[in-house]
Design goal:
With about 170 residues, the protein is an alpha/beta fold. The chain is built from five helices and six strands. The protein has a single domain, classed as 3-Layer(aba) Sandwich (Rossmann fold), CATH 3.40.50.
Length: about 170
């Protein structure tokens, strides 16, 4: 069960999955390493601005980079908390072994887990994204300008009045 955190001190994340990134799943690509460092710089700046709680949707790709950045920040600032917003219990059902292992490790590192629903439905990812936005005052987005779940989440966050920090992959 996730304790209710104040929106004013909460930031959530949206971003592309590995398949939409120029480097795919090569986490050692220079562009990927640069993005990871930029994400860390952003979460650190948000911490300095008063953000203490971070929510991650736990998808393969940029979500996991964000999660790792917050774990790194939390190692330096114990009052930071990290929440895994999981769209459904079956989120990793079709993932490869390597992705599932990384996911399980990262979820275990989170302070809280919020499972949106038991089984998969066509809209469970959107429900997860709305939950994250509705719980936050800031959205960090890795976005390439195309249409998809990341754009839908950004558009929803705009309608909800969140501050949006956008990075290009």
């Amino acid at each position: 069960m996730t304790p209710k955190k104040s929106r004013e001190i909460t930031c959530c994340f949206t971003g592309h999955r590995s398949s939409k990134l120029p480097w795919g799943s090569n986490h050692n690509d220079e562009r990927c390493l640069s993005l990871k460092e930029k994400l860390y710089d952003i979460v650190e700046a948000l911490y300095r601005a008063g953000i203490r709680h971070f929510i991650c949707g736990m998808a393969v790709g940029c979500d996991m980079y964000f999660c790792e950045a917050v774990i790194r920040l939390r190692a330096e600032h114990k009052e930071v908390s990290l929440e895994a917003a999981i769209p459904c219990e079956e989120q990793t059902k079709l993932w490869g072994k390597r992705e599932r292992r990384r996911y399980n490790y990262l979820v275990h590192q989170c302070d809280f887990e919020t499972v949106i629903q038991h089984g998969y439905t066509d809209d469970c990812m959107q429900k997860r994204n709305r939950y994250m936005v509705d719980s936050s005052s800031v959205l960090v987005a890795v976005y390439d300008g195309g249409y998809g779940g990341t754009k839908q989440t950004i558009d929803y966050a705009v309608r909800q009045g969140l501050e949006i920090i956008e990075l290009r992959p």
